[in-house]
C-alpha cells in the first residue's frame, strides 16, 4: 500500500477526472485499487504497481499546477511511458509551449521526437495516423517562430489524389488544393489564436502550400514541414530536401502503409529512409500503434492492419 497527500484540493477534480474516470483507468491498467478522502490518496496492490500509479498521479498533478489541462489521453500516455524505459519516464515530461496551450509528449517515442527536432536540422518521422507526427512538428515550428528562432514557417504536402479527381473540384487552384492542406491549418488553429494565424498567413510568416510550389526556392531562416511525404516521388523528395537554406530546419512526416502513388511508383520517403540514414544532423524516428494518442478504437484498428501486413509479408 502507498499513501500520500496533495496540497491543493482545487486541482483534484481535474486530476481524478469526471466521475473518477482517470482513477478508474489507472486501476484497470495496473491491477490496483485507489481510494481517496479529500486530498489524501491510498493505493493498494503490488508494490511496483502502487509506486507506478503514485508517480503517474504526481506527474499529472504537477501538470495541473503548471496550468495545463489533462484528459484520458494524457493518463493513457503516462501509462504507456511508465511501462517503457523507466529512466526515460523519470527524466520528466518534455513539452512545447504555444500561444494557446502547452503540448506534452504522451509516449516515449513522442518524447524522443521532440528532443530530436531540437537537436537536428532534418528529422524524418514515420508511422501510422494518430501518433502526433504532424501535430508535434507544427507545435515545434510554432514555438520556434514565437521565440524568433526562425522568420517563417512553411507547411507543405503533395496534393496526391487518393481515388478522387482534383480537376473536378470547384473553384480556383487555391480552392482545389486547400482540402489537401486542411490538417495543417487545423494544427495551426489549435496552437495560435485565429486572428494571429490569419495575420501571419497574410504576411507570409506562415505559408501553407502544395509541394509543387516549392520548386526553385531556397528556404532560409525557415521551419519547413513536409507532411504526407509517403506520396512524394523520389524526384520530389530530392527537390524539397535540397531547398533547405541557412538557419533552417525541416521535418518530414509520412506513413509508408498509406502510399497513394499510382503505377507502383517508388515513394520518395521510402527511398530517403534507405539512403540518408547515416548522415550527421539527420535523424529518423519510427512510430507504431503503441504511440497512437487518439481513440482506443483507432489503436485497435492500427494494430489489426499492422498484423495483417505482417501476415501478408511472410
Properties at a glance:
314 residues, single chain, 11 strands, alpha/beta, six-stranded parallel sheet, three-stranded antiparallel sheet, 12 helices
- Total beta-strand segments: 11
Order of helices and strands: EHHEEHHHEEHEHEHHEEHEHEH
Average pLDDT metric: 85
Specify the helix fraction band.
40-55%
Structural class: alpha/beta
CA-based gyration radius: 21 Å
**Strands side by side in the biggest sheet:** 8-7-9-10-6-11
> How many strands, what sense, and barrel or not for the largest sheet?
6 strands, parallel
Distance between the termini: 47 Å
What is the beta-strand fraction? 15-25%
Q: Could you list the spans in which at least 5 consecutive residues all have pLDDT below 50?
A: 161-166
- Rough outline: globular
The number of distinct helices, counting runs of at least 4 residues, comes to: 12
Structure description:
The chain has twelve helices and eleven strands. With 314 residues, the protein is an alpha/beta fold. The strands form three sheets. It has a six-stranded parallel β-sheet with strand order 8-7-9-10-6-11. It has a three-stranded antiparallel β-sheet with strand order 1-3-2. A two-stranded antiparallel sheet has the order 4-5. A hairpin with a 4-residue loop joins strand 4 (95-97) and strand 5 (102-104). The radius of gyration is 21 Å and the shape is globular.
Amino acid at each position: 500500500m502507498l499513501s500520500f497527500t496533495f496540497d491543493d484540493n482545487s486541482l483534484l477534480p481535474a486530476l481524478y477526472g469526471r466521475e473518477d474516470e482517470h482513477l478508474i483507468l489507472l486501476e484497470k491498467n495496473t491491477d490496483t485499487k485507489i481510494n481517496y478522502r479529500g486530498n489524501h490518496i491510498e493505493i493498494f496492490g503490488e508494490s511496483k504497481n502502487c509506486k507506478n500509479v503514485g508517480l503517474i498521479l504526481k506527474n499529472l498533478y504537477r501538470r495541473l499546477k503548471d496550468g495545463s489541462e489533462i484528459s484520458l489521453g494524457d493518463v493513457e500516455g503516462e501509462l504507456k511511458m511508465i511501462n517503457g524505459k523507466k529512466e526515460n519516464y523519470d527524466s520528466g515530461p518534455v513539452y512545447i509551449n504555444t500561444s494557446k496551450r502547452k503540448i506534452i509528449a504522451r509516449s516515449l517515442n513522442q518524447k524522443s521526437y521532440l528532443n530530436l527536432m531540437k537537436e537536428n536540422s532534418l528529422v524524418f518521422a514515420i508511422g501510422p495516423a494518430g501518433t502526433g507526427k504532424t501535430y508535434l512538428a507544427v507545435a515545434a515550428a510554432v514555438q520556434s517562430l514565437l521565440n524568433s528562432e526562425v522568420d517563417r514557417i512553411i507547411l507543405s504536402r503533395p496534393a496526391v489524389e487518393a481515388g478522387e479527381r482534383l480537376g473536378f473540384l470547384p473553384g480556383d487552384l487555391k480552392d482545389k488544393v486547400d482540402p489537401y492542406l486542411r490538417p495543417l491549418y487545423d494544427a495551426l488553429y489549435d496552437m495560435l489564436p485565429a486572428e494571429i494565424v490569419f495575420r501571419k498567413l497574410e504576411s507570409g510568416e506562415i505559408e501553407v502550400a502544395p509541394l509543387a510550389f516549392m520548386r526553385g526556392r531556397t528556404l532560409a531562416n525557415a521551419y519547413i514541414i513536409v507532411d504526407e511525404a509517403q506520396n512524394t516521388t523520389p524526384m520530389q523528395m530530392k527537390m524539397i530536401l535540397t531547398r533547405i537554406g541557412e538557419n533552417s530546419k525541416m521535418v518530414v512526416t509520412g506513413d509508408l502503409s498509406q502510399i497513394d502513388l499510382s503505377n507502383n511508383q517508388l515513394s520518395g520517403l521510402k527511398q530517403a529512409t534507405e539512403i540518408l540514414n547515416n548522415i550527421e544532423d539527420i535523424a529518423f524516428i519510427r512510430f507504431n500503434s503503441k504511440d497512437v494518442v487518439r481513440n482506443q478504437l483507432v489503436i485497435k484498428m492500427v494494430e489489426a492492419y499492422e498484423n495483417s501486413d505482417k501476415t501478408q509479408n511472410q
